[in-house]
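::Amino acid chain::
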Amino acid sequence: MGHPFPIREIARQAGLSEATVDRVLNGRTGVRESTAREVHQAIADLDRQRTQVRLQGRTFMVDMVVQAPQRFTTAVRAALEAELPSLHPAVVRSRFHFRETGPVAELTGTLDRIARRGSQGVILKAPDVPEVTAAVARLVDAGIPVVTLVTDLPATARLAYVGIDNRAAGATAAYLMGQWLGDRPGNVLTSLSSGFFRNEEEREMGFRGAMRTLHPERTLVEIAEGQGLDATQYDLVRAALERDPDIRAVYSIGGGNIATLRAFEDLGRACAVFVAHDLDGDNTRLLREHRLSVVLHHDLRHDLREACHVVMRAHGALPPSGPTVPSAIQVVTPYNMPAPIG
């Protein structure tokens, strides 16, 4: 395998038994392909976090469970791993459970496996549905603190939410949209990845409320359930554009912006204003190319550092603190882009 890690470290990172890891490493039969992938992923995670593995100090193993497109989970992983050294003298190690979409039973199954196996904390981005609420309750009953990231689950016993004030972000998008559109006619397309993520629902409510106050003459056209994935997003946007020839601007709440722009281009339509969220890899490139007007961004490193601090406080490793304050909403243009993570 060409790695320096002992079997017990790989087993801990993967959440598997040492015997199972040994079978995978030695190519023995009787191991599911998915289990083998977990072992190889654990080795890759350990390699990226190798500065943490050899440190001495109180160790916290944190599980990150995130449902989001790969472009966002890639940014989350990079942000957390960039922050790990700043948490010394404590040692924080992380296991990642990422998925783009899928049945909610698979997501709750992941949370239940963590509850059975044990963890020092779970950082969670998940849809706000009853099944997830119940799974979070089982984690809390198992003594595992839960912190919600980017999108909240307020009906659960989670310890804290870290992220922006999403309703304020939506209102900010409406203000910018009105300023840039000015007196030009046109309807605005609002795009959500799913109606089950509370952050997107709150952004949409903030945007709609501010537009109703500031620009009541504008019609808002909503599409949803593209999951932020390019293949499904393209079809939804193209269908909306074909139905409504007056759409001239986009507020992208849930992503899939490359596909959205391609739909405009394929129909020979211009997008006068495009407001998006998060400086992931796609949006960074689109903003540099001036294909997006502005990106509403928040510092993922700050959010993940705060999430780790909440977990550490839950275990008495840091003194108590006041309520978690929402992250600052950064209005990013092609001319004030922050430095890339790492």
In short: The chain has 13 helices and eleven strands. The longest strand covers residues 59-67.
